[in-house]
Design a protein that fits this description.
This protein is of the alpha+beta class. Helix content is about 35%, strand content about 25%. The protein is globular.
């Protein structure tokens, strides 16, 4: 029985830590939403705008955008920077409160991934066609 009690305490501690991390992430996302000017309508950024943001983030993360990877994906707030070039130009995207980066090909921008000015609603995502699609 003593072993069972120790297991329960560890499990509760892990659950508490997970809840704390989720709460911190939600608070960070909400704070970022407030930083974006609300006058301009939300929209998908052009590749040129994404490249400008990546250049501004060269030495430090100065600007945030929201990445959508595929039609049914979650939206990730984070910072985009120059990645590497290997036959194609890749940008790195680091999700907020995450220390790992993913790399995305600029050739696939608008077709497989895209960035938003602000966190899009489900309606905005549905009504904004991907490159090569007919208007919704």
């Amino acid at each position: 029985m003593a072993g069972l009690g120790a297991y329960h305490v560890t499990s509760a501690a892990q659950t508490h830590r997970l809840c704390t991390v989720k709460r911190q992430k939600k608070e960070a996302v909400n704070a970022l939403r407030e930083l974006k000017p609300k006058e301009e309508p939300n929209r998908v950024l052009t590749l040129g705008e994404v490249l400008e943001i990546a250049a501004e983030n060269k030495d430090w993360y100065n600007r945030v955008c929201w990445l959508e990877w595929g039609k049914n994906s979650l939206i990730y707030p984070g910072c985009i920077k120059e990645g590497y070039t290997s036959g194609d130009r890749y940008l790195s995207f680091e999700e907020i409160i995450c220390e790992e980066a993913d790399f995305y090909s600029t050739k696939e921008y608008g077709k497989k991934w895209r960035c938003w000015f602000r966190n899009p609603t489900k309606q905005e995502r549905t009504e904004t066609p991907w490159e090569g699609e007919k208007n919704a």
